[in-house]
Amino acid sequence: MKLKKYIALVAITALMGTLASCNDYLDKDPENSVPETSVDFTNISNMYQPVSGVYARVRTGGMHWVIWPLSIVRDDDVWSGRVDDQQLLVDFGNYKYDNSYWGLNEMWNQYYGIIKVANAALESLDSYAANTTSQKDINNKNAYAGEVRFLRAYAYYRLTQAFGPVTILKSNSQTDLTRSSLETVNKYMLEDLQYTIDNTPKLRPNEMEHVGAVSAYSAMALAAKIYLNMGNYAQVEALTDQIVNSGKFRLYPDFYEAFKIPGKLSDESLFECQCTDFGNGSGDMVDADVWFVFQGPANDGDISGWGFIGLYKKFRDWAKQRGETVRYTTSFLEAGTTTPSGDNIRPLQNPTQTDCWNGKAYTPLKELTPGRTKYGSNNNIRVLRYADVLLMNAEAKVRLGKNGDKPFNLVRTRAKMPTLQNVNVDQILDERRMELCCEWGERYNDLVRTGKAEAVLGPNGWTKDKTYYPIPFEQLSDNPVLAKNPISE
Predict the structure, then answer these.
(1) If the chain, 489 residues long, is cut into consecutive pieces of 10 residues, what is the mean pLDDT of each piece?
(2) Do 215 and 202 form a contact (C-beta atoms < 8 A)?
(3) How far apart are the two ends of the chain, measured CA to CA in Å?
């Protein structure tokens, strides 16, 4: 597929291709790559186009609707939301895995699709660089390669969250598909992220030349998450300190609006998947297909969707007992209530469905561009937030015998919760549970990395061998080498 001209207004969400393909990730000609025979690599003004293509693939593939529940239903707070449709998503949330489920294969293919497009983009950038001697153009090429390497590392990060040890695809023509150990994949991701840190500007994404593009600070945040999983708290502290001490980031003052149109690309954002309707009430949009619609409540009228992603009542009760108000209202979109924005959510009609949906995916009707009715239209998908950085910083400090109150209480204050003194790790984990609920499987990841999963999830059927999803059956059938033990390098 030839690269289409990217949209200047939102360069990182370029219309490089249509919806992401479900092709196997081993296809030799990845979708959204730029065939070298059709590109004039002497036209340096087009050098950002392959970068835009990787962002577009993240938007169309990395935000595929089935990836979302598979990412977040394994904790004790969230479930698929519907028993009457996609029963296997309910089963996966209860640790009854079926490797023939099409969604697992989709997740595998979509993330490897991002990796393949990233690999192709890096080759294209090298071809552009071969046609310039300008130091400015060379610096731009290195910065653009840094963005691509971040997105590649991001895809691997999500793959390891889901599947643990996976194949490192260093080249799209690679034939050896043996999986690498988790430690080896971590090292590979960190190398990519270090390149990004060294070569991209130290700016907020909303300050970047291509507004919303990832920066050195985005890479620091993702690297900190990897080091957190590795238990390397000194590195977590060092990286998050750099972000905090830069003075560039701040929590969006209104937690409720932080996930809605006013909070798009705020000073809290380190990485968002950008979408836009260009301010037009009809016509083409650049969006993530049905990522928002999938989570919309089973409701009448414009504020409605497929009714997936439910929040357990016991979790909501826990939040109430903590005294949560702002985060409760924002995170829980409950049936039979009226939102602060004035939208009515009808009482529960179907007892097989949840009575509470993900409020962080809710965009009020009054914030939609007039003429638009698609749930979530014109909103961005938040991926990395400064609040997570602050809580990682607090945890690292406490684990290193220091005081983590300052970053911890910044998060609580924004949520209108009372400040605490001499916070401990368990209090920080509880804060993460509330602040980051329904965000990319953070709760499940925290339970696993801290060794708490067996105690918390064990009664629901979790065992250590259920930490990761099985390799999709279709992938094993096509590539039996994936069944071999991972190798360390």
Answers:
(1) 26 32 32 55 95 97 97 97 95 97 98 98 96 94 98 98 98 96 98 98 98 98 98 98 98 98 98 97 95 94 92 98 98 97 93 96 97 96 98 99 98 98 98 98 98 97 98 97 94
(2) yes
(3) 35
CA distance 414 to 404: 17
Task: Give the list of residues 6+ apart from residue 85 with CB closer than 8 angstroms, or none.
Answer: 306, 308
244's tokens: 């905090």
**Residue 84 near residue 352 (C-beta atoms within 8 A):** yes
| Contact yes or no for 234/399 (Cβ under 8 A) | no
**Cβ pair 380, 274 in contact under 8 A:** yes
CB neighbourhood size of 159 (10 A): 22
Cβ neighbourhood burial of 243 (10 Å; 0-12, 13-18, 19+)? buried
The residue written with tokens 């990796």 in the block is 115
Contact residues for 127 (Cβ-Cβ < 8 A; gap 6+): 36, 39, 41
